[in-house]
Amino acid sequence: MVVIAIGAGAAVGVVTRAAPSVEPTATPVPTVTPAPDTGPLVFKQPLIAGCATDDAVWVVSDGGGIGRFDRVLQRWDLIDSTLRSLVSAACGPDTVLAVGAFGHVVTIDDLARTIRSDDIGSFNVYAVSLLPDGALVVGSEGSVQRQTSAGWDKYAEGITEDLYGVVGFAGSSAWAVGAGGVTYRLESAGWKQFVTGTTSSLRTIAAASPTEAIAAGDDGVLLRFDGSWRPLESGVQYELRASARAGPITYVVGDAGTALAVEGNTVRPVANISTTCALRGVFVQGNEVWFVGSEGTHAGVWRKSGERIDHWGTC
Q1: Beta strands per DSSP E along 210-297
Q2: Intra-chain end-to-end CA distance of the chain, in Å
Q3: Which secondary structure element, helix H or strand E, spans residue 81, and what is its range?
Q4: Nearest 10 degrees: Cα torsion 134, 139, 142, 145
Q5: H/E segment holding residue 153
Q6: Structure confidence by residue, pLDDT tens digits, 199-249
Q7: CB 164 within 8 A of CB 126
Q8: Which of 8, 147, 266, 308 could form a disulfide with 135 if both were Cys (CB 3.0 to 4.6 A apart)?
Q9: pTM of the entire predicted model
Q10: CB 166 within 8 A of CB 174
Q11: Residue 101 three-state SS
Q12: In the chain, which residue ranges form alpha helices assigned H by DSSP?
């Protein structure tokens, strides 16, 4: 306020100065904390198997966590760090089914972002294959169970060998392989055994139909079925652990970085997968073939698309 005085009979007045305007206080914007990058942790897990949904690729571990590769973001995340003993996985469009020791079954819903664990028995589950109306699992001491909308039920009698690999086509059509070189084909009358000519344990089987299949296992044993089983020359003595069918080619992987492509009676190594880590899993999504490997504290994933190979991890 300014006071003005005017002498000799003049008036005295007061002039009021406008108060300074107060600037509005800005609303603080909260700082977004970036999500931690858990991608490197995926490759510290003992990775053993994987599969692909529509939007992601999944890897599971035997004694570690679960990893997810986002196809859009092109990044890996350790989405579950719970220590689980999982040895096989199969994917539908939006779900993952992973299995392991003591009848453990893990179901992942990729849309709902949920993970559910169930126990379906006291046996060790070694392999899983999806069916049009559910799934088929095999395991220790000839255990076979089928999943339908009603739940899990025993699906074989009289098989005593450990079963390590399975591929299913329908509720009444499948192959299973296991210890001592045994193979069983599920037919309308039940499980029928086929002689293989080997006593080496068969760890994996891949097939496009019940009448044509590739099985592989210990000591580099590689077999083809086209009415009967007969041997193929793998060129290795290592344990062959996993297989997957992509069109006319069956990919077979195993110890010491072994990766083979089998087409008809022809067997050739897969080029440009340079690792000495054991390759423990292989699966197919579209025109891509994915390989999963680990050795000790090192793990890796490879993606083959045509002649291009992409690699993540420390293996």
Answers
A1: 212-217, 222-225, 229-232, 240-246, 249-254, 258-263, 266-269, 278-285, 288-295
A2: 80
A3: strand 75-91
A4: -20
A5: strand 151-154
A6: 999 999 999 999 999 999 999 999 999 999 999 999 999 999 999 999 999
A7: yes
A8: 147
A9: 0.88
A10: yes
A11: helix
A12: 39-42
Contact of 162 with 197, CB cutoff 8 Å: no
Q: pLDDT tens digits for 103-118? A: 999 999 999 999 999 9
Per-residue model confidence as pLDDT tens digits over 261-279: 999 999 999 999 999 999 9
Compute the radius of gyration of the chain from its Cα atoms: 30
The encoded tokens of residue 260 equal 């083979």
Per-residue model confidence as pLDDT tens digits over 4-43 = 333 434 334 444 445 555 555 556 666 556 667 899 999 9
Q: For position 20, what pLDDT does the model report?
A: 55
CA-based nearest residue to 290, from 255, 239, 235, 246: 246
Task: Give the C-alpha separation, 39 to 67, whole Å.
Answer: 8
* C-alpha to C-alpha distance for 155 and 153, rounded to whole angstroms: 6
Cross-strand bridge partners of residue 26: none
Q: What are phi and psi of 88, to 5 degrees?
A: -155, 150
DSSP, residue by residue, 277-315:
SEEEEEEEETTEEEEEEEETTEEEEEEEETTEEEEEE--
At 253, give phi and psi (nearest 5°).
Answer: -130, 160
Q: Which amino acid would we find at residue 216?
A: A
* Measured distance CA(128)–CA(139) in Å, rounded: 9
The encoded tokens of residue 200 equal 């080496």
Question: For residue 35, what are the contacts with CB-CB under 8 A and spacing of at least 6?
Answer: none
